[in-house]
Amino acid sequence: MHYPGRSLLFAANAETAHRAAIAALRAWGIVGTPFAGSRTSDAALSTRVAGIDFANPVGLAAGLDKNGDAVPGLFALGFGSVEIGTLTPRAQPGNPRPRLFRLTEDAAVINRMGFNNDGLDAALNRVAALRKRHGVLGINVGANKDSVAGDRAIADYALGVSRAAPLADYLTINVSSPNTPGLRDLQSRPAIDELLAECDAARQLPDGSKRPFFLKIAPDLDAKAIESVVAAAIDHHVDALIVSNTTISRPESLRSAAGGESGGLSGAPLAPLARRALRDARSATGGQLPLISAGGIDSGAEAYARIRAGASLVQVYSALVYGGAGLPRRILRDLSALLQRDGFANIAEAVGADL
């Protein structure tokens, strides 16, 4: 699908286009006017997950707005939730460029950004200065590269959680990026138990309540590994599981010249793997833990299929590159129609309907 401005954006390299999109969304947020038709008044799309009220189940995944630069503009697209980050305690430049690649023939993206961000302080100051959010704000936290290498990663996560908790509606613990060496090892026990225990303690607010926290896992985990992560998540009171991040695998179907680049693959080719991971996570949780499906969601039909397969919420990112700013409202429109067609009064009724 081609949208106004796509040719101009695609004429630039992927990272330059990314920065231009963030600048445009930031400017749009300052103007304060939603894109035409971006708001949804369909009460059937509202849902409550992990004690949080979402106006609709379609969220923006972390990675697009790493530093919280364009939150109002992103909400103006119609998202029910926006997740910023990944944020590390200290600013870091990330991996050498080029590190972001479009796979246009595959409607996909490969990135090896490496948690490039301005650091916690800069992003949280921007969040604190927001006058109005218009939706649920998630803050995704990670560890600095040198902390992972020096076995100090867990302290970085705990610091990120404690600092971000007062400003977030929910927190996400990102241990599934493939672009920081050693990070994914934190998905294995006993490391995941220590990490989640520290983060569970760090998310406590001054009034004694706890900010909801989510765990984001890799799609490359097999069913047994997902069972282990789910058990740890339940043991340590994680409020929801985001399934899943980018993949280091490469489907044989890839046609784009950049398909051999290293990094995490996202977009349409990730969909089968993300669906499989969702099924395995649903089986492992037995419905005890809400699931948020991400990876290859590019339409209302795909979002609806994930919901019927057990996801309470969905997240998109790479599909925006190919579908443009109108994608969220198209997904919402189609979700409304699909719920009505199948006789569901609301999103919650459709969750797990195919199981």
Descriptive key words:
355 residues, 13 helices, eight-stranded parallel barrel, three-stranded antiparallel β-sheet, alpha/beta, 16% strand, 13 strands
Give a written overview of the molecule.
With 355 residues, the protein is of the alpha/beta class. Helix content is 37%, strand content 16%. The chain is built from 13 helices and 13 strands. The longest helix is centred in the first third of the chain and has 18 residues. The mean pLDDT is 95.
Order of helices and strands: HHEEEHEEEHEHHEHEHEEHEHEHHH
Radius of gyration, CA atoms, in whole angstroms = 19 Å
Main β sheet profile: 8 strands, parallel, barrel
> Which ranges are low-confidence, i.e. pLDDT below 50, for 5 or more consecutive residues?
none
Find the count of extended strands (DSSP E, 2+ residues): 13
Fraction of helical residues: 25-40%
In terms of structural class, how would the helical and strand content be classed? alpha/beta
Backbone shape = globular
Q: Give me the number of helical elements.
A: 13
Mean pLDDT: 95
Percentage of residues in DSSP E strands: 15-25%
Q: How far apart lie the N and C ends? A: 32 Å
Strand arrangement within the widest β-sheet reads: 3-4-7-8-9-10-12-13
